[in-house]
Structures are given as C-alpha cells and as structure tokens.
Amino acid sequence: MKIELIDSHDIGVAVRAARKAQRLRQDDAAGSIGVSESFLGKVEKGAESVHWGKLFRVLEGLGVRVSVDIPDDAAALFAGEEQKRYARVERAEKRKAARERADE
Question: Of 13, 41, 12, whose CA–CA distance to 25 is shortest?
C-alpha cells in the first residue's frame, strides 16, 4: 500500500502500523533491528530530530520501503548526483582497502 507522507508524524504512524502488523512489541522490534527502544519510540511518535541512518535501519527492519516522486526536470540532476556519490564511495573503499593491505 502506498501512502503519502506529509511530516515526521506520518512516518511514525507507518512504522508503528508495520510493527504492530508483525505483532512485535516495541522492545522486541528495537532489539531485532539493533536500535534502542527509546529511539524506536521517538520514531513512532514522529520526533523531528532522529538520526537518518537509524531511521532507515528501522524502516528496512520492518519492511517499510520509502520512495520519492521528484519533478521530471530534477530527475537528470538526481541521477548525476547519485553517480557522483557512488564514485566517492568507491574511491573511499579503494583507499580503505589499500590502507588495510599496507598495514599487513
């Protein structure tokens, strides 16, 4: 089911619904995902200041997928920025591997 998210509270409702649909208690869900129960509670309440990486870990852990619908004229710019990001990640991984080989 696709729903439109307007604000952080909408994300919280989606997370809570996904957790309850799986019949998971908040503490059990948090433990299996690898976040604190406090953090999961903040997400479910729609707190506006949560760590993005942990938020996406919660979403993935509960099977919630997020997509964005961007204007057509932004699609090419998005693709270019995405390519740049992947290139930066690849360079960083190569540098890390080289450092690890040098440390051996």
Answer: 41
Sign of torsion, CA 58 60 64 70? positive
**What's the CA dihedral at 61, 56, 25, 28 to 10 degrees?**
60
pLDDT digits (tens, 9 = 90+) for 6-61: 889 999 999 999 999 999 999 999 999 999 999 999 999 999 899 999 999 999 99
Domain boundaries, the chain: 8-61, 70-104
Total residues belonging to the chain: 104
Rounded distance, CA 28 to CA 20, Å? 11
Q: Which is the CATH superfamily of the domain at 8-61? A: lambda repressor-like DNA-binding domains (1.10.260.40)
